[in-house]
Amino acid sequence: MGLGGRPSKAEQADVDSAIVSHCRRVAALAMEISRMAGIWPAPPDRSERNAGCGGDKEDGAPGGLRRVEAVAGIVRICSLVDEQLETLQFGYKDVEAIFDAIQRQAPREGFDPALVEHFRQMRCRSLPQQIERGDGLPVQAYAAREVFRLLGHEREYEVRELAATAARDPVLAATLLRVANSSLYSPASKLSAVGKAISYIGTAEARKVLLAAVLRPLFASAGLARLWSHSVRAAQLGSALVGQTSLVGAEEGLLLGLVHDFGALAIQFAPRETRDISARLAERGCPATYVERLLFGCDHGEIGADILAQWDFPDHLIEAIRFHHQPERSDGALAAFVYLLEFWSGLDEDMPSFDRVEDCLARTGLSLEALTEIGTENGKLKTLRSLA
Q1: 3 within a domain of the structure (yes/no)
Q2: From the centroid of its chain, how far is CA 51?
């Protein structure tokens, strides 16, 4: 706080930025609700009454006035929805319960309670069933599932195990050979057998190659190259940070980074209408998790955890992935660890919350200084970077 109790320039800038972000999100929501209510884009005949937004066709009010009143109500409800979604950074609330509460507020807030139904109509109801059945994901997901069932647990692996896994898919075998023969390892002579390639680079590095190689095509098929690069960066940081905390080993730190945003992949195979709404909201300034909770009632961490549970992932890793955008919902500190990987890897998927960052640092025993010093340039992770 500045002199005389006034906010400093930096504090005022933060406040101004928060207000601008709030207004952008409200505008984005209002445009979608207006579209669903049939008042935006405006009909050609601007004198017509808008019966779809609670208007009274017999009251004699000019059509333009009725439209203004309808838009004012939409802006009001969108502001309330945004305020409630923003509070999710401080504690969990069921999104449907938020809508119920706002609908009860309608009479005293001065908008039509029926407007809430447009938010409910916006919701995607089919994705949870798709996840449960495994439908809607690309064919490569089944190969990935089998590889993760074989290699997803942290233990010592033998050359023959990894060679057998690579033999299941010619792309995996080719990737292993490409990495082993690259300038990164520079063998004296070209390696042509998978088993020899694994022996040469080591089983720990070979496992990293297989885990990353089976995931990369999934992200590519969904047009998520930027998210894949972010996941590799998080994996690098997760593996490098294990010396600073006893929460997780190097292999699990790497695995958490690779798969923590896996739910975002499933969302790309949601119904087209839902994806279109999501894209418009994102373009107009709504963060990814904000949009996901609005449309699905949960974020991609929860969606990804449901998938990975089907893939027989260890329970403690599933919980960390499930709550990595709301780590306060987890009793353990591993979700806080993944939240910090997300935060420090530079992809803005959530509304900023420095209180949450500080809480996660305290729960994990990490510091911003440690994150800054370690970064992602760890020599042991050159193999993974070659697959980014």
Answers
A1: no
A2: 38
